[in-house]
Amino acid sequence: MAESAGAGVELERQDGVGIPDRWARLWTPHRMAYVTAGDRETVDGGNGCPFCRIPTLEDAEGLVVARGAAVYAVLNLFPYNPGHLMLVPYRHVADYTELETTERTELGDFTSHAMTVLRKVSGPHGFNIGINAGDSAGAGIAAHLHQHVVPRWGGDANFMPVIGATKVLPQLLGETRALLADAW
Fold first, then answer.
1. What's the predicted TM-score (pTM) here?
2. Fewer beta carbons within 10 Å, N or C terminal of the chain?
3. What is the pLDDT of residues 133-151, one digit of tens each?
């Protein structure tokens, strides 16, 4: 028997084959490596931790916005909003409590500076700032600590994600990186 999702939308036919729903699908097969990587250490094609590899790349190639002595700022490859940064210690540690004092201090300084730069470049109304510590907390790469700085604007979750099930990002990552790096 078919189940109903309300408003007359049938979820499953009697033969068990799903009926298409109203959601648009954006196919991102490159994300499968993140979904299937057990410990998330080989998501960059077997070259080890991506957060350890990124600093070895040229800034534009790695989407690095700024480099400090203990921490670097990099754009998120899969941003929630334009300018979504991650602040990452160079040292491969999994937990905030493993950071040395100099790393914690620079992480805090980078957080403050990232907010200042994002306000200057794109004028967000607010920020989500946080660390997902561990797989069960939602960390995509739990083995290497990283802090998210996500700029937010009133109404940035407009009708597209709600009605169209699609997130619209109005700027290419390379352009965002250049703006933020220049302002850093």
1. 0.71
2. N
3. 888 888 889 999 999 999 9
Task: Note the Cα 164 to chain centre separation in Å.
Answer: 21
- For the chain, the domains span 29-183
CATH of segment(s) 29-183: 3.30.428.10
Cα–Cα distance measured from residue 104 to residue 44, given in angstroms and rounded to the nearest whole number: 27
CB 124, CB 118: distance < 8 Å: yes
Task: Give the active site residue among 30, 84, 113, 146.
Answer: 146
Active site residue 146: yes
